[in-house]
Specification:
This protein is mainly alpha-helical and about 150 residues long. It has one domain. About 85% of the residues lie in helices and about 0% in strands. Helix 2 packs across helix 5.
Length: about 150
Amino acid sequence: MKYKFLIIALFICIAAKAQTTANITPAHLKAAEDVLLASGAGAQLKENTLSMIKQASGNVPEDKKTKFIQVMNTFTDKYMNWDMIKDQMAAMYAQEFTEKELKDLAVFYRSPLGIKLNQKQPVLFQKGAQLGQQAVQSHQAELQQMMQEAFKDQ
């Protein structure tokens, strides 16, 4: 179950890479890049990735955990690093927000409250992931039963 977070992140990266910036002006794209910088998106990506790897390693036997973490870090550093995806992330933001909205977001992220949000994001992300993990674990037997029933005819 914990691997799903990493798989979802990979799909997001692949989907972002496939998108084009055909209808986005350079100024609009610049505003999106500014939001990403102001929000600390690069550092958040790294912190969130490390957190996901740490959580995923919980299902790995102790004697293999260190190697698992090394492999996952190498893989994510190679394919999910900020330098590789920042342009695609900017394009995604530009497609979802107007240039004015992006400029307003950048102002927010540079405000005291925006800075506080940036500082709290890793903790909130980790706690949210733990909530999801606890919900699944507390109902794991039911989920397994549902899966068995859904796939029994296949």
